[in-house]
């Protein structure tokens, strides 16, 4: 077809023109039309990205099951990784597209969730009690799917739904239709997962859902939402989790920008932007960031286990990404990948699926999370004739509550208690401690990639840092410091291979007198070796920020834990020498400990929640490696 709108017109007349995609990116006054051939790939590394002139090369439809490439658990439903290898790329003005897209109503019948409200509520309760309540993680996303049957040609219905989304939805990162021949996807995704342009890697964590009806949200209700502790903590937790990913794909980790208000037709979200420089192949970036914590949970590896355990069905394309790969004018790789949420999948027979999920955190209620799934589905369901439309935009753009001074102040206030290490531009070497240059540290990862963030902070303090998975037995010789890191699970279950292995590692380090720092799970296992009893908290400390005493200084730090050691005194004797404890005055919970050549902290100094985390690490290095700390304190006597 010689003119772009001819293809759309042919589809509107019931003709299948072959594989194509139509995309409107955020803020654009035009749509992009991609045509080409479809091929499948087994791995992300197999997505084609040939050399050649600048422009898009491939649009990849990445299913959730690709998470298996990282060795993570999933229910494998066999849904393919499909790639539209682009042969032609055109731009269509928005007005021209609206003129040619079908504007008749979409009719769908037999609509209903595959999991009823009461059954979904029961699942929420189980996850809160059995997973978050037992230390398996801080948050988890559990999905369910609205199913229906579209009347008439599915491709015509998808383009009609696209037209309605273009007119009535707002704030979407991508609004799109993708047709591969075997399936058609239509949606308005609010969230960039990851993009790469000119070497700049960006991620865009979005969390917190404010539901509203009408043309605009109620300002006072929105302000209450912005101050709601559940919503604030939910965004902080996904921010931490995506910072873990940025720690892997960006050379110096990510810098946090925001937060902002993402305003859409039926709801509003809060969001941050993360940015950092990187040089990896964009397919590696995709692999290392599978998948967003906003649609899985944290820590990521265990979140995948929890999802498989409680959902018991494959996710198909829900929580995957739509990834556009290409080249820029200098031949460098580019990537733009929205998350596949607020998206409907239609089969050639008219079977319709609209999956949605809710983020479960320690403050969640079953009723609230059920309502959240309905709200998240509302926009795309309305476009498919299964719900009320949001008011159509008038001649003037809707007033943005994100520009309201009080709303902006409420958003800005969220950064006040956070770690400046992640919010400020960092100058290499500016935080280095005297005498640490050239010393080496090994971090043992207990299945929580907070260790990536910890590596950046220790590196900023001057250390050379390596990371190793707990499953990789190898000598620790040649390192000046060994860090036994965080991870999910019950530290009292020494029959679990991870707990037994990490405890044995700690015992060996203590026996050898090697400088050792233990964080969160590592701290709990260290406490057990020192004879301190472990307790499960009545209320989990998952994503909780507190001011606590740490060896005489008040520190604001972030916790991600369900278990804690307790003690009745500030000093105890152990088989490895005297131990000094920093305890909670209320219940004796041990927030930090130190002894001859070892130290442990129950909180996460590397977390964005730990405003004073870098200072804590500096002091601990002063104790462990006998070098002056950032705070100006001299070395601590290890005897």
Automatic annotation (TrEMBL):
Its EC number is 4.1.3.27. InterPro entries: ADC_synthase, Anth_synth_I-like, Chorismate_C, Class_I_gatase-like, GATASE. It catalyses: chorismate + L-glutamine = anthranilate + pyruvate + L-glutamate + H(+). Residues 442-620 form the Glutamine amidotransferase domain. It is an enzyme of class 4 (lyase). The keyword Lyase applies. Gene3D superfamilies: 3.40.50.880, Anthranilate synthase. Residues 118-376 form the Chorismate-utilising enzyme C-terminal domain. PROSITE patterns: GATASE_TYPE_1 (PS51273). Keywords: Lyase. PANTHER family: AMINOBENZOATE/ANTHRANILATE SYNTHASE, ANTHRANILATE SYNTHASE COMPONENT 1. This is anthranilate synthase.
